[in-house]
Automatic annotation (TrEMBL):
The active site is at residue 461. One of its GO terms (cellular component) is mitochondrion. Its cofactor is FAD. Belongs to the class-I pyridine nucleotide-disulfide oxidoreductase family. InterPro entries: Class-I_Pyr_Nuc-Dis_Oxidored, FAD/NAD-bd_sf, FAD/NAD-binding_dom, FAD/NAD-linked_Rdtase_dimer_sf, Lipoamide_DH, Pyr_nuc-diS_OxRdtase, Pyr_nucl-diS_OxRdtase_dimer, Pyr_OxRdtase_I_AS. It comes from Eimeria acervulina. The keyword Oxidoreductase applies. GO terms for biological process: 2-oxoglutarate metabolic process. This is Dihydrolipoyl dehydrogenase. FAD binds at residues 80, 144, 174-176. NAD(+) binds at residues 213-220, 236, 307. GO terms for molecular function: dihydrolipoyl dehydrogenase (NADH) activity; flavin adenine dinucleotide binding. Its EC number is 1.8.1.4. PANTHER family: DIHYDROLIPOYL DEHYDROGENASE 1, MITOCHONDRIAL, DISULFIDE OXIDOREDUCTASE.
Length: 483
């Protein structure tokens, strides 16, 4: 078979887990697919489009009936939409007055907010369908299951006979689902006791929202409803929020949330619950993990946000001998690739991957789990190492930090570098537009830049990006605008 290569800049480092696929200028003329992607989320649909652009005959199987996965339908996009709307309400109702702007009679219209959010989601999902048509990706609505190493069985959403798709390669990009609370103390009904999906679709502002889990999802959704007037209490089993968070950033972030009015109960676990249909109240039975003391918390809505787990049910994994580890991630998939060409795609790990499995255009390959990881938290973006990790590994490092003094909602940018080489090892940003600011740090770390490289680059003034420049200057020299 003739293999065509595209001229491209050679990669600085070939990622591990790269599997080479033949490139074609035309689609296959046979009925067999070159690639079938199970899952139409950010990992799956991106891989499908790129494969089709390379000339591979590609199909994408999605059981939700709408492309975009959790992120677009019941995750990042609707959550950010509600967070943005709730922040605007908070500004209008309480923050504008300090700028000399008086706004009277501000109120929340939840049905209109939810309708606006749904329109955003619908527009984006339809946009992905348009990209599929433009790139000639076949979109199949149904539940995909591995029948054998080269066959995907699809059960249509509307019922009917299953369809068999013959394929040379398969990407599993089935994403994740909300994790239940261990022990069964809370049973989600999406009315009074809700998952993140239900918390995005509430028809009213809760009087008192109890958030079980002080992680990324719980804190963001807690912020949404707190901004709109709900009393919010976070119940966390650990002794701090987001255990994987940088300690300094975590403390500053917790203070920010407490100033918003969010309350925290640390080292506390839920051991039981009672629902009352008369007054729509839920009573949580809590126990202090250290002292054993018990107490009760009364609320009207409970959000169970104890993390997410990979969606691996009903995929036919066991029949093919694909084993799962304790985290339900494929334990032996890499050893099976050579004979089955079945490749792990976007499946949630403790730190979310940008796009799990992607098809790389210059090299015509499928890459599994790129090494660059960008954790995402409300108001926080980060890449690279933690100070605790560097200390544990015995790495000599330097720390540079700079505050966003001009914005009271923001905190700081922190940069960690190798003491000997000045190479950037980690960047943490707490503040507004952190998601945009982190891109410069990602690019710098991808190419092995030193803090001096960023510190000597001209940054537009006055902009928030100057904080990253100053934090880098604090590593290799001295910052200008802080004592």
């Amino acid at each position: 078979m003739q293999i065509y290569r595209l001229a491209a800049r050679p990669l600085a480092q070939q990622p591990r887990g790269a599997f080479w696929l033949p490139q074609r200028r035309l689609f296959s003329s046979t009925s067999e697919y070159d690639l079938v992607v199970i899952g139409g989320g950010p990992g799956g649909y991106v891989a499908a489009i790129k494969a089709a652009q390379l000339g591979l005959k590609t199909a994408c199987v999605e059981k939700r009936g709408a492309l975009g996965g959790t992120c677009l339908n019941v995750g990042c996009i609707p959550s950010k939409a509600l967070l943005n709307m709730s922040h605007k309400y908070k500004e209008a109702s309480s923050d504008f007055k300090k700028f000399g702007i008086r706004v009277d009679g501000v109120s929340v219209d939840i049905p209109t907010m939810q309708s606006f959010k749904d329109k955003i989601v619908a527009g984006l999902t339809q946009g992905i369908e348009g990209l599929f048509k433009r790139n000639k990706v076949e979109y199949i609505k149904g539940a995909g299951r591995l029948a054998d190493p080269h066959t995907v069985q699809v059960h249509p959403i509307g019922g009917g006979n299953a369809e068999m798709l013959k394929t040379k390669n398969i990407i599993l990009a089935t994403g994740s689902e909300p994790s239940p609370l261990v022990g069964g103390a809370l049973e989600v009904d999406e009315k009074q006791i809700v998952s993140s999906t239900g918390a995005l679709s509430l028809s009213r502002v809760p009087r008192h929202l109890a958030v079980v889990g002080g992680g990324v999802i719980g804190l963001e959704l807690g912020s949404v409803w707190r901004n709109m007037g709900a009393e919010v209490t976070v119940v966390e089993f650990c002794d701090k929020i987001i255990p994987a968070l940088d300690v300094e950033i975590g403390r500053a972030f917790q203070k920010l949330l407490e100033r918003q009015g969010i309350k925290f109960m640390f080292s506390t676990k839920v051991v039981g619950s009672q629902k009352s249909n008369e007054n729509d109240e839920v009573t949580l039975e809590l126990e202090n993990a250290k002292s054993g003391d018990t107490l009760k918390l009364h609320c009207d809505v409970v959000l169970v946000a104890v993390g997410r787990r990979p969606y691996t049910r009903d995929l036919g994994l066991e029949e093919l001998g694909i084993e799962l580890d304790k985290a339900r991630i494929f334990a032996n998939l890499r050893s099976l690739v050579s004979r089955s060409r079945c490749i792990r795609g976007s499946i949630t790990t403790p730190i979310m991957q940008c796009s799990g499995a992607v098809v790389d255009s210059p090299r015509g390959r499928i890459m599994v789990n790129g090494q660059m990881q960008v954790p995402k938290y409300p108001h926080i973006m980060a890449i690279g190492d933690l100070i605790e990790g560097l200390k544990a590994e015995g790495v000599a490092y330097k720390r540079g930090a700079f505050p966003f003094a001009a914005n009271s909602r923001a905190r700081l940018v922190k940069v960690l570098t190798c003491k000997e080489t000045d190479k950037i090892l980690g960047v943490w940003i707490l503040g507004p537009n952190a998601g945009e600011l982190i891109a410069e740090a990602v690019l710098a770390m991808e190419y092995g830049a030193a803090s001096e490289d960023l510190g000597r680059v001209c940054h537009a003034h006055p902009t928030l990006s100057e904080a990253l420049k100053e934090a880098c200057m604090a590593c290799f020299d001295k910052p200008i605008h802080i004592a």
